[in-house]
Amino acid sequence: MKSRFLTALLVFAVLNLVVAVVNPCRGKAADFPEMTWTGWAVKHYIEGPKPNVVFLGSSLMLVPLDGVDANYLNRKIDGSQHHSSVYFESVFKKLTGADIRTFIFALPGEMPSDACLITRNMLSGARKPDVIVYGVGPRDFMDNLLISPCASDPYRYLSRFGVQPSLVSNLMPDWTDRLNYEFGQACYLYGNKTDLVCDATRSGARQIERVLPAPPGTKFTIFDRHRLMPDYHPWELSKGEALFRPIPPDQKIPFEDNLTEYRKRYATVKWDMFVSQMQFLADLMNTARKNGTHVVLVEMPITDLNRSLLKPYAWKAYRNGIKALAHAKGATFINLEDSGKFQTSDFGDTVHLHSRGGQKLLDLIAEKMAESRATRVALKLPVENDKEELAGRMPALPGLKGAL
Amino acid sequence: LLFNSLQYLLFLPTVFLLFWVLPHKLRVPLLLVASYVFYMSWKPIYGLLIFGLTLGNFLLIPLIQRAATVKAKKWWLGLVVAANLITLGIFKYAYFAVDTVKESLTLFGVNWHAPHLHILLPLGISFFVFEFIHYAVEVYRGKPLVKSFMDFALFASFFPTQIAGPIKRYQDFIPQLDIASKFKWEYVDLGMQWILMGLFKKVIIADNLALVVQAGFGHPENFGSLDLWIITYAFAFQIFFDFAGYTDIARGSAMLFGYKVPINFNLPYLAANVSNFWDRWHISLSTWLRDYLFIPLGGSRCGKWMVYRNLFITMALGGLWHGAANHFLAWGAFQGTVLILHREYVELLKKLGWAEKLHASKLYHVVSVILTFHVVCIGWVLFRADNMTIAWQMIQKLMLAPVSLLHFSAAQLSVLQIRDPIIFPALVLILPVLMLSHVVVNFLNGKKIYEHPPWAVQVVAMVAAMCLLTIFTPDTSPRFIYFQF
To answer: How many CB atoms lie under 10 A from the CB of residue B369?
Structure first.
């Protein structure tokens, strides 16, 4: 060949093919270089017993679930390690007499796109739960701060278990993300670089440890590292980093004003993102139905303060959208926004319920689930009455009908 | 567009293919369009800035040549240089000027409510403004004009060198545009070799060192004296490999079109004195400063104190060119000062009659290299620190190194305690290897096996680079350091 570079390129291509056939990274999807909220949840889900009920959602769901358990158990709860709602299990048992096992797959910042990947990759097959309880808020569908669905920590982790071709366009609306993905598909070394870098780093670390062992009494912790290098592995989360503390009943819980943050989140309604996240929600429900898992969609309460930041048409589109989807896909819909049970004093900020508000939330969800025939059937509980909770059935939103 | 992005991986081959498919007369327009696309992909409006400056200079500079008298020539040159510097000043130094005035007034008890400026520094402005000034001065000195606007516009905006140089000379660049060269595989081989080498320097070496440097310069209070020396060495190599990597990619990209652009580095950390360091570091800038600032100020052809003044002014302004901040000015002033001290030292040796004997000794050379490297490193602290307070804090700690060495134990090194990322402890092994790489390249330079390695060696090296880059290129890589200038 005339060119050395072209020869090198050809050798590189052949090498890629050979490595792809050997596939040294096979079966390493669950072995991630650093543990994050998603990493811990995936690890515990795979290693733990199969749950009956899985909670999905963003911090709107996560914060009350963990906060309530900290109060209920009267001890500190490590968010990264605590993956079942002890309080919910006990309330549900009181209501139905049934022992259920829950798993919290709610993650900070989780979008419907992430929940969809969790459902497809984790909540399917032998480990599929009986019921998915998914708490959603308007932010999940219209967050200006989200660069792209494939820029989230859950995507980074869960895409390792596979990205279904039908989801690719919605997950990567930006052409550079798509290019990156396609390049990863075509080039084994690029597509599997996370695993290869991880192996190289671990092997390097072992060699370094041999040649230059850490001085005795080394006290450098991950907290020191976060302070020194805030941009290095920003999503990494180690044990003991996310603690929920019990709050005594007489202690006043401060209210944090996070409206500035939400002003940015709601600044402009990106309709393409809204529609694509609705499509992910629809996909989640389709997947669950195919798996024989019942979905309980919870419209999470938010404060009037937060709601006032949303443009009326965005608020309406969100509410109609989730309601229409829930009914169209046969999910149980729990509307807590209109329940009238939550006051601003139940919230730690303008969207997150604190532990006392969270207790109300879990009580209400447990109550509705205990009443719901569909949920009881899914959980194989005796059906006591035929009362169906699908009151207020809404016609599907015309604008979304075709898209979903 | 960043050189280390997937977009560039698409952009460059596209332009390359079009360039060689198109007839010669369409190649310059193609590169011009590509260069503007490259520039405007960041902020389209700044395309107007570079175009406006190009047009203005193209129309005004011929007036220097046409002026009848020397006085008139000087007047037109002054106007052109001032126009370029004012543009640079507005975009680059407005914040600095306002802050400096505000701080000065505060010293006198005046509380001035400074206007809030919204100026974004256009990428590469320091580089193309210097190229315009170079052209204007050369025309003033009697060199020929560039006839074609297209050629002139491409000279200023040529995408491989647009953002961070090397600062080109028009006499070298423009004639290359007229040559109707035929495609040669040699261009691809050499160009891609440089590009791969540049990416390796940037992504594999500089970006990893950046982790340590960021932590050290961000929180010097967490590190001891010896740690800070190691971190400073790390920055010395980070900035070298970052900028040399950029330059290699720029030169390689230009080579794909058969164009040569100047080199910027020649093993700078093997310099035996500070003057020699400036012959080896950012060569296109240091020669520019020499030709268009130091010499016009009077250069070396004047009295000793005037030469020192010229040196100091040149280096201080060179420092300020890097960025509108006191620590850059201090870095430039430091370089000027050590250059003056070096001249004094040489004079002293000559007077004592030891100069020749000493210079001939190998031991003296080795000690000089080590000493020069450390002086340069102290300069880098001023350069890299976010402000003078941090720089001063670091320098004070660095000076305590002899005390720390007296009761040295590995346990006192924080870099050994941090085990993740492993680059921290690995530095103790990597830094000597990087220094040694200078020595090895120096040894190999000029040898046939290095200049023209065997076919198989070159192919294996390129495949290895491709594999390493494919695997180790992070999802987000820090920008090239010199992009901010």
So the answer is: 20
CA distance A78 to B474: 31
Question: What is the distance between the alpha carbons of residues A355 and A57, in angstroms, rounded to a whole number?
Answer: 17
Q: If you count them, how many residues does chain A have?
A: 404
Question: With 80 as the cut, is the pLDDT of residue B220 above it?
Answer: yes
Return the closest-CA partner of residue A326 out of A141, A195, A135: A135
In which residue are the tokens 């769901």 written?
A: A61
Query: What is the model's pLDDT at position A75?
Result: 95
Instruction: Determine contact: A305 vs chain B, CB below 8 A.
Output: no
Pairing, β A131-136 against β A77-78: unpaired
Closest-CA residue of A relative to B424 is: A208
The question of whether B134 is a catalytic residue gets the answer: no
Distance between alpha carbon B381 and the CA centroid of its chain, in Å? 16
Query: What pLDDT shows up at residue B358?
Result: 78
First-to-final CA distance of chain B: 16
d(CA B397, CA B384): 16
| Interface predicted TM-score (ipTM) | 0.87
B280 touches B445 (CB < 8 A): no
Q: Rounded mean pLDDT of B391-412?
A: 90
pTM score, whole prediction: 0.88
Whole-angstrom Cα distance, residue B477 to residue B285?
26
The answer to whether the CB atoms of B467 and A189 lie below 8 A apart is yes
For B110-156, write each residue's pLDDT tens digit.
888 877 778 888 888 999 999 999 999 999 999 999 999 999 999 99
Q: Do B185 and A3 touch (CB under 8 A)?
A: yes
Question: How would residue B323 be classed by pLDDT, with cut points 50, 70 and 90?
Answer: confident
Six-digit token string for B260:
């040569």
Nearest of B30, B43, B204 to residue B120 by alpha carbon: B43
Of the CA atoms within 13 Å of residue B378, those in its CB half-sphere come to 18
Which chain B residues are within 8 Å of A157, Cβ to Cβ?
Answer: none
Q: Please, which contacts does B14-21 make with residues 24 or more away whose CB atoms are closer than 8 Å?
A: B15/B159, B16/B256, B16/B257, B19/B256, B19/B257, B20/B183
CA distance A192 to A19: 11
Residues of chain A positioned with their CB less than 8 A from the CB of B222:
224, 228
Mind telling me how many Å the CA of A41 is from chain B's nearest CA? 23
Give pLDDT, residue A389: 43
- CA–CA distance from A289 to each of A282, A296, B157, B191 (Å)? 10, 12, 58, 56
* Alpha helices, H only, A97-248: 112-121, 153-158, 165-171, 175-186, 188-191, 193-211, 222-228
Per the CB < 8 Å rule, is A220 touching B419? yes
Q: Which tokens sit at A185?
A: 């598909």
d(CA A395, CA B92): 59
Question: How far apart are the CA of B299 and the nearest CA of chain A, in angstroms?
Answer: 45
Instruction: Say which residue, B358 or B78, is predicted with more confidence.
Output: B78
Closest partner residue to B462 (CB to CB) among A8, A179, A201 is: A8
The tokens for B2 are 């960043």
Report the C-alpha gap between B333 and B440 in whole angstroms: 33
Rounded CA separation A4/A8 (Å): 6
Per-residue confidence band for B23, with pLDDT thresholds at 50, 70 and 90 = very high
- B213 vs B235, B326, B391, B413, CA distance in Å? 6, 20, 13, 15
Question: For residue B7, what is the nearest residue in chain A, using CA coordinates?
Answer: A176
Instruction: Using 70 as the pLDDT threshold, list the residues of chain A that sit under it.
Output: 1, 384-404
